[in-house]
Write a structure and sequence with these properties.
Blueprint (H helix, E strand, L loop, with lengths): L1 H18 L2 H7 L8 H20 L6 H34 L12 H20 L42 H26 L6 H8 L18 H17 L4 E7 L6 H10 L1 H6 L2 E8 L4 H12 L11 H12 L4 E8 L4 H8 L10 E7 L2 H7 L5 E2 L5 H12 L9 H10 L4 H12 L4 H10 L11 H10 L3 H8 L12 H10 L10 H6 L3 E5 L6 E5 L3 H8 L4 E4 L16 E4 L7 H13 L7 E4 L5 H10 L8 E6 L17 E6 L5 E3 L12 E3 L7 E3 L12 E3 L2 H5 L15 E3 L20 E6 L7 H5 L9 E7 L16 H9 L8 E5 L24 E5 L6 E2 L16 E5 L6 E2 L13 E5 L23 E5 L17 E6 L3 E6 L2 E5 L16 E5 L17 E5 L18 E5 L19 E5 L8 H16 L16 E4 L2 H4 L2 H7 L5 E5 L9 H8 L6 E5 L19 E5 L18 E5 L3 H8 L7 E3 L1
Parallel strand pairs: 1-4, 1-5, 2-3, 3-4, 8-9, 9-10, 10-11, 11-12, 12-14, 13-15, 14-16, 17-18, 18-19, 19-20, 20-21, 21-23, 22-24, 23-25, 25-26, 26-27, 29-30, 30-31, 31-32, 32-33, 33-34, 34-35, 35-36, 36-37, 37-38, 38-39
Antiparallel strand pairs: 6-7, 27-28, 28-29
Helix pairs in contact: 1-3, 1-4, 1-20, 3-6, 4-6, 11-12, 11-13, 15-16, 15-17, 16-18, 24-25, 31-32
């Protein structure tokens, strides 16, 4: 009932807003209608007050009110549609200069004649066509071209050249429709007033009943904690070790998660753990729930810490606080506040006041809550976020609940399917467990899965009532917002813009209202970051999608499974419809959808959202079902192409939100002219049409109410006369075109609400400062990123237009942005920037909000220093990113004296500045002034003076590349040095660098590597120096070593036995004319060392070397008995790379190979002289993979066959005979690739 009352309130409010429009108001008050618009507004506002009062009173189960609400909803909805159509024609009049919706025709001869003509048109229309207020006519006062009637079955796509023209206006039908709707509303308003007089007031009891919470104590009914063992142990450690080490008197640790996730159970186990009990002599468990009463809570605390003291019975808060302070003075204590719903900051501080006064430190308060907003109010440590159990853990818990052991084999797959639907919620498992436990038949379990019976359980200890209590706690407006989530697929990622515009389109909120953060604070949403784009999005907390479906079932219908959709179960009040079915077409779907047409008021649906992939049969049914639809505000649709849009598409003149997606991609798409006729449209989403050439109607600028146009940059750049779309909030790209009308820079002038990013190309086509000023960039305060480009998309040189002339600086001067700008880029500017009079850049130093500065290909920029381009001591204090690219004359950047300009800097990119020698943010960082800097890229700047790199410990992504010093790359804890001949700031990488690669003879001394405790991998490539490997013996942390194409290395002194942690060793020369002695010498040295130390080594000597993978270029060096015996226990993969000596294995080598009993993979790569595989392969018991690549002399597999353990045989670029033999193998469980 509350939802129905609230929906009616919202609808009445929207009609009031429509009547507040001056032109609509004048039309309603015109002679034709004879209505008093002010009285109508007053009556409606009075009805709103009545509805608000009914809502406040908590009216429940009142059939008379319910029936009246349904009538009101229908009548007010019709009035809203009629007034919306009128407003549509008013907008069309404004666009075309026509007078169809002029309020009063007056008594002139022209007025009478026109009125007669409208009456004739109306009579003809009634005789020929069904009445539709706004319908299409051949005739037009201003000679408009003819177009199809919206009921016509012709295709809605009519090209994009403007051939589909505007709607004409049946004035008589409109007048009658509005008059009838408003008069019917008048009578209903009076009935509401009379009914309210006899409705009782339930407001005092509603909240208490709905929000009654179960009491909890410290003793849990669940003896074992499932799936959270690691988190539990870490929390115990935090409670005991970390808090003991802390000097804080009191810490507060919140445990947060949605209802039913197991917060209380987790905390009960913490509370009762032996380690916790021993560490905290004083403990108290307080169940708070919805009643945060400081006096009562203080009484409960005192009663538990002083069990034999009756002082807790006092009603004096002062006495209670003194007693608590005294009782806890010398004891370390743990207090749990379970299930907090609401508390003010003042109440919380009052409650905790006596607890921080004692002599002990490391005291702890645990708080459990389902509300993130409460966490921020109370926390002093990072909160613990409880999520659903992983599937395996959940199944184990499930088994314990139902069987107290294993699930029977015939029910295992069903149990998995049920578990997946429950999203890891322990309380959901208990709810479903009760349903399943008493009937273990497969039929019963399938019914529970199919019908979602667990969602219908009503007991307080079931999952849906537990979740719904959070919903009941919300204000009504948030309830309406939350219920709309049911229309989207599960796990849908919501952007703030998407859902806010969706709510606005349905009239739930005003345009500028934002309830996403409120739902986040109340625990209904989770905010996450996309790992690729780094953009924020929201997702619903696990089972809350099912809750949204439940609470919105009277208004929202989401068909998500053919099997569960029954038209007979659908309420007639449904207003919003979505389809997210994933299964294929079945005939029952056609039957149910046919029934749906007589069950639901299809023409007056407000939202239709289709998320399924295109399937011809399904889409034919959907189009047939909704062919009468007219009142849509929201449409999400997927089509094969714009030409396949449904036939009802042109009628949707009420649309506010339109998202069209492709089911398949083509090279070029053309949208129909109909798209330009949706004058009410506020958001148009074509973002899914990427990697395609998208052609819009030429008159797309008629969408004058459009606020958000979500599409690729190229689509934005092709909108002519975009200045007509004055409410537009985003335009990613604009190209100034000399030859094309509608692409002058002045088009940007009226777009005062532009925000986000804007790139302007071809500024060379702007001739004067006055022309540039018409863009009015200085007035666009919401713009965050501005990119000014002289030239087109592919231009790498300054534009030829006005190159080097004074006018070029004047144009830049006219493009002054708003001081709030956060990111600025200037590219290909060929003139001076020092004579420009901006309040910011140039002189850009005065842009105090600047976050990003990009200067690209500006040939005249010589220096940046105090007094030049506006630089002062306050400049660049907010700057996070600097890009200097292709500045051929730029020499230096000087900082103002005593300035701390770059303290927020995060990214520095400096490329191709051949004369640059000085940058202030590349000076000594010992004073710690660059604490946020993480990325540095310097290439093609040979004169630039630089400190040792990385010059600050915060850097995690560094590229330095000059011809003089070589190349250094440090990224993701990996260091790559190519011919690098400078010293490095190793102290800034201490404890961080994990991998180092030396290429082409970098001069870093290896001895320094011993100090790197985190160092695990070393790669040396292409080093022709006479280095000695002896110093590598002491790198005991090394797990991975690769030496490649190093022809002069000395092996003497390098003892592999000392590298006890080495798991992966590769030593080979790929270059043909390089010698092969490095690997041979290394392994020979190993064999000698084994023999020499044999008497000293214990029987388990193999444990001294833990090699798992070995890659060498010498068969004869590795297949030696002492070496293989040492590697036998651990070696799993052996790769022979580029052995150019061995043709066939000797008997000793065959015997040595047999010692490798743990070997699982054996590969030969580019062994050009090798004629056969080892003949004893069949004797390797663990071998699973055999591979030969570019070994063209091997003609056949071993005569004695391959081991039965082999699972993969890969032959690539070998002899045809070997390929054919491999393909013919018929061995079970063997995968052959040849």
């Amino acid at each position: 009932m509350e939802a129905a009352i609230g929906a009616a309130r919202g609808l009445v409010g929207r009609v009031v807003n429509l009547l507040s429009n001056d032109l609509v108001q004048a039309y309603v008050a015109s002679a034709e209608l004879g209505l008093n618009s002010e009285k109508t507004k007053d009556d409606l506002m009075r009805t709103q007050v009545v509805l608000r009062e009914a809502q406040r009173r908590g009216v429940i189960n009142n059939p008379s009110l319910e029936e009246l609400l349904h009538k009101l909803h229908t009548k007010v909805g019709k009035a809203e549609d009629a007034l919306d159509e009128l407003q549509y024609i008013i907008i069309q009049d404004q666009l075309d200069g026509t007078q169809y919706a002029v309020p009063d025709l007056g008594n002139t001869l022209w007025g009478h004649a026109r009125h007669i003509r409208h009456a004739i048109h109306h009579a003809i229309g009634n005789f020929i066509l069904p009445c539709f207020s706004c319908w299409l006519l051949q005739d037009d006062d201003h000679g408009a071209a003819a177009i199809n009637h919206p009921h016509n079955t012709s295709n809605p796509a009519s090209g994009n050249d403007g051939s589909v023209t505007k709607l004409s206006f049946d004035r008589v039908a409109m007048s009658k429709k509005i008059k009838q709707a408003i008069e019917e509303m008048h009578s209903l308003c009076d009935q509401f007033l009379e009914l309210l007089k006899i409705i009782p007031d339930h407001s005092n009891s509603t909240t208490t009943v709905n929000l009654k919470r179960p009491l909890t104590g410290s003793i849990t009914a669940q003896d074992k904690l499932y799936g959270r063992e690691d988190l539990f142990e870490q929390t115990i450690k935090d409670l005991i070790t970390n808090c003991t080490d802390s000097n804080k008197a009191l810490s507060v640790m919140p445990i947060i998660g949605p209802g039913g996730i197991g917060k209380t159970t987790f905390t009960q186990h913490l509370y009762k753990d032996k380690r916790t009990r021993e560490h905290y002599p004083a403990r108290a468990w307080i169940c708070v729930s919805t009643d945060f009463d400081v006096l009562k809570l203080s009484q409960q605390i005192l009663s538990q810490i002083e069990e034999n003291n009756d002082a807790y019975q006092t009603s004096s808060l002062n006495q209670l606080q003194n007693s608590i302070e005294k009782g806890l003075k010398s004891k370390r204590f743990l207090i749990v506040f379970d299930d907090i719903w609401e508390c003010t900051t003042q109440d919380w501080e009052t409650l905790l006041a006596p607890m921080g006064k004692g002599e002990t430190t490391g005291n702890m308060v645990l708080v459990t809550t389902r509300f993130p907003s409460k966490v921020d109010d109370v926390k002093t440590t990072d909160p613990i976020l409880l999520k659903g159990l992983e599937l395996d853990d959940f199944l184990t818990f499930f088994e314990a609940l139902i069987f107290e052991g294993q699930i029977p084999h015939n029910l295992k797959e069903l149990a998995k399917d049920i578990a997946k639907k429950l999203k890891g919620s322990p309380l959901a498992a208990k709810t479903v467990g009760r349903l399943l436990k008493n009937d273990l038949s497969k039929k019963h379990w399938m019914a529970v899965l199919k019908d979602n019976r667990w969602q219908k359980q009503k007991n307080n200890d079931d999952i849906m009532p537990s979740l719904k209590i959070s919903y009941d706690y919300l204000p009504f407006q948030l309830k309406k917002c939350f219920s709309c989530f049911s229309l989207f697929p599960e796990d849908h990622r919501f952007s703030n813009l998407e859902i806010t515009c969706f709510w606005s389109a349905l009239g739930i909120i005003e345009k500028d209202e934002n309830y996403m953060e409120e739902l986040l604070k109340n625990g209904f949403l989770v905010k996450e970051n996309d790992r690729w784009s780094n953009q924020q999005y929201y997702v619903l907390h696990d089972l809350l999608h099912e809750l949204a479906r439940s609470v919105s079932s009277q208004e929202c219908l989401n068909i998500y499974s053919n099997g569960s959709f029954r038209a007979d179960d659908v309420p007639k009040s449904i207003r919003h419809f979505s389809i997210t079915m994933k299964d294929k077409y079945v005939e029952t779907f056609r039957t149910e959808m046919t029934k749906l047409k007589s069950k639901v008021d299809i023409p007056n649906l407000r939202a239709l959202m289709i998320f399924r992939k295109y399937e011809e049969q399904i889409d034919e049914i959907i189009e047939d079902t909704f062919k009468e639809i007219e009142a849509l505000r929201v449409l999400f649709i997927e089509v094969m192409s714009p030409e396949s849009l449904p036939h009802y598409f042109p009628k949707l003149i009420h649309l506010r939100y339109l998202k069209i997606s492709p089911s398949e991609f083509g090279s070029e798409v053309t949208f129909p002219s109909t798209l330009s006729r949706f004058y009410h449209l506020q958001l148009l989403d074509l973002s899914d049409w990427y990697d395609q050439s998208v052609k819009l109607p030429n008159d797309i600028n008629r969408l004058t109410n459009l606020c958000h146009f979500i599409a690729e940059r190229e689509v934005h750049s092709n909108v002519p006369e975009v200045g007509k779309m004055k409410y537009l909030k985003e335009l990613k790209e604009f190209h100034v075109k000399k030859e094309s009308v509608g692409f002058e820079l002045s088009e940007l002038g009226d777009l005062t609400e532009l925000g986000g990013e804007l790139s302007i190309y071809n500024i060379g086509n702007v001739a004067t400062k006055e022309e540039a000023m018409k863009a009015k960039l200085v007035s666009k305060g919401d713009l965050e990123t501005l990119r000014l480009v002289w030239g087109g998309l592919d231009a790498s040189e300054p534009s030829d237009a006005l190159d080097g002339t004074p006018e070029l600086s004047d144009v830049l001067d006219g493009l002054e942005p708003h001081p709030n700008l956060q990111s600025l880029g200037i590219e290909n500017h060929g003139g001076s920037v020092e004579g420009v009079s901006w309040a910011i850049l140039p002189p850009f130093g005065q842009l105090l909000h600047l976050r990003s500065l990009k200067l690209i290909n500006i040939s005249s920029l010589v220096q940046i220093k105090p007094g030049v381009v506006g630089v002062t001591a306050k400049s660049f204090t907010q700057l996070k990113e600097i890009v200097l690219d292709s500045l051929s004359e730029f020499t230096q950047w000087d900082e103002a004296p005593n300035a701390h300009s770059f303290s927020m800097l995060e990214k520095i990119v400096c490329k191709e500045c051949p004369n640059l020698y000085k940058l202030p943010f590349l000076q000594d960082c010992s004073m710690g002034s660059y604490n946020h800097l993480w990325k540095l890229e310097i290439t093609g700047c040979p004169k630039l003076l630089m400190p040792l790199m990385p010059h600050t410990s915060t850097l995690t992504d560094v590229t330095v590349d000059t011809r003089r010093t070589g190349r250094m790359v440090y990224v993701n804890h990996n260091l790559y040095l190519t011919r690098y001949n400078r010293a490095l700031a190793w102290h800034n990488m201490a404890g961080k660098v994990e991998s180092i690669t030396f290429k082409a003879g970098s001069t870093v001394p290896w001895i320094i590597l011993q100090s790197l405790t985190s160092f695990k991998k070393l790669v040396i490539e292409g080093d022709s120096s006479k280095q000695s490997l002896a110093s590598l013996s002491y790198l005991t942390s090394l797990t991975n070593l690769r030496i490649q194409d190093c022809k002069n290395f000395k092996v003497g002194g390098f003892n592999l036995l000392m590298a006890s942690n080495l798991k992966d060793l590769a030593v080979h020369n790929i270059i043909e004319y390089y010698p092969r002695f490095v690997a041979a010498d290394l392994l020979s040295e190993l064999a000698v060392e084994i023999t020499r130390s044999k008497k000293l080594l214990p029987p388990t000597a193999g444990a001294l070397l833990q090699l798992v993978r070995l890659n060498v270029d010498s068969i004869s060096a590795v297949l030696v008995a002492p070496v293989c015996r040492l590697l036998a226990a651990t070696l799993k993969e052996l790769v022979i790379t580029c052995d150019r000596e061995v043709e066939n294995l000797t008997k000793d080598e065959e015997k040595a190979l047999q010692l490798l009993t743990s070997l699982q993979e054996l590969s030969f790569w580019r062994c050009h002289r090798l004629r056969s595989f080892p003949q004893g392969l069949h004797g390797l018991p663990s071998l699973r993979k055999l591979q030969a690549i570019t070994c063209r002399r091997i003609r056949s597999l071993p005569k004695k066959g391959i081991p039965t353990s082999l699972r993969e045989l890969s032959i690539n670029d070998c002899s045809r005979k070997l390929h054919n033999q491999a393909k013919k193998l018929n061995q079970r469980n063997l995968s052959v690739s040849a």
